[in-house]
Amino acid sequence: MSVSVSIIPAADRTPEDKTRILLFSYPQASVEELPSMIAAVTEALGLGSETNAFSNDVLRVELTGPRQPHLTLVDLPGLIHAQNKQ
Predict the structure, then answer these.
(1) CA-CA distances (angstroms) from residue 76 to 2, 42, 58, 69?
(2) pTM above 0.70, yes or no
(3) Pairing of strands 58-64, 2-8
(4) Number of domains in the chain
(5) What is the domain range of residue 16?
(6) Is residue 76 part of a domain?
(7) Residue 86, SS3?
(8) Which sign, positive or negative, has the C-alpha torsion 75, 23, 31, 36?
(9) Cα separation, 54 vs 70, whole angstroms
(10) Cβ proximity of 2 and 64 under 8 Å
(11) Is residue 16 domain-resident?
(12) Does 84 reside within a domain?
């Protein structure tokens, strides 16, 4: 099984941010490394700081392998409510 991660930048990103985000790459790895991948994406998007807790960018995590079931996860914007940026 292999895991690949890519980010599709939001339309409201600056051209520089779009280029930087599209160039983001994480070496293909195993599913056990998923937390490390998420941490790298969080940093690449500038999330987790006091100013940004959410993003309009699309995170794509693709797991492929001969025994992988078909599964689609959808994040519904606005479903989560946060009291503050943290």
Answers:
(1) 26, 18, 12, 22
(2) no
(3) antiparallel
(4) 1
(5) 2-64
(6) no
(7) coil
(8) negative
(9) 27
(10) yes
(11) yes
(12) no
